[in-house]
Design goal:
This protein is of the alpha+beta class. It has one helix spanning 7-17; strands at residues 37-42, 45-51, 57-61. It has a 3-stranded antiparallel sheet with strand order 1-2-3, with no helix packed on it.
């Protein structure tokens, strides 16, 4: 018989194992032109991925003002 994990244990494991690494969001072809952007949710946090003027692709955590 298995016991379902405690929510606190699950959150701690997610923070330890997954939040600290690199994560695949989509192919670079999803934002082909400068100025294009893509909004995704990763671990419950909104993230904006944008292709900038220098052709670089960057991801930013979307911070909401209270």
């Amino acid at each position: 018989m298995t016991i379902p994990p405690d929510d606190r244990v699950f959150r701690r494991e997610m923070a330890t194992a997954y939040r600290s690494g690199w994560h695949f969001i989509d192919l670079v072809t999803a934002i082909p032109h400068r100025g294009d952007s893509l909004m995704v949710t990763l671990f419950g946090e909104p993230v904006v991925v944008a292709r900038e003027e220098g052709e670089d692709v960057r991801a930013y955590r979307w911070l909401r003002r209270p």
